[in-house]
Amino acid sequence: MTNGRGADGHGTADEDGTADGHGTADRDAVRVDRVMDGLRAFGANYTEFTRRFAAWLGLHSTDAAALVEILYAEDQGAPLSPARLSERVSLSSGATAILLKRLEQAGHIVRTRESTDRRVVTLRSSPDIRPRAMAFFGPYSERMAEAMAAYPPEEIERFEQFLGTLRSTMDALLANEYENGGPTPPAS
Questions:
Q1: Residue 182: left (phi > 0), alpha (psi -120 to 50), or beta?
Q2: Which DSSP category does 13 fall into?
Q3: Which of 17, 28, 53, 175 is most buried when burial is the number of CB atoms within 10 A of its CB?
Q4: What are the 10-residue block averages of pLDDT along the chain, 188 residues in total?
């Protein structure tokens, strides 16, 4: 699907290891397919981690996904507003307000007014939830750091650039071609 090979994204490999016997171009296409498959699998696994975090905390998966976004934003030094969280978890402002009320009542988040503009609300994790999140995601972080330590810094830097390019490409697609849900389906 990623390179026009078919719905499953795969071709057939001949004896020389090339797909359909056409050489370098097909080998490159197969490599791109494998990278895309790996990215999809990683995304699915991360989603499963979030689902298990939700179950571990006794939360709905959407609430846990929002909590993870709030924690991550804090870790990056850029705490979220309710409007930005709404964008990150793809909920309406009303649904986000209800979600935030649940998280606040459960003691997982606090809303603060840190800006000079007192109308601006900042979302913060509660002091009780951060140690729990660190306990849950600690093994994940450690294993990912171990896996990446096997690669030289130059390779990690190239991978970081690659992922940055993929992210900006996806951001542009979502903002443009998929802004209203996706392209117009072909006529049947």
A1: left
A2: B
A3: 53
A4: 49 49 81 93 92 93 94 93 92 94 94 81 92 93 95 95 93 86 81
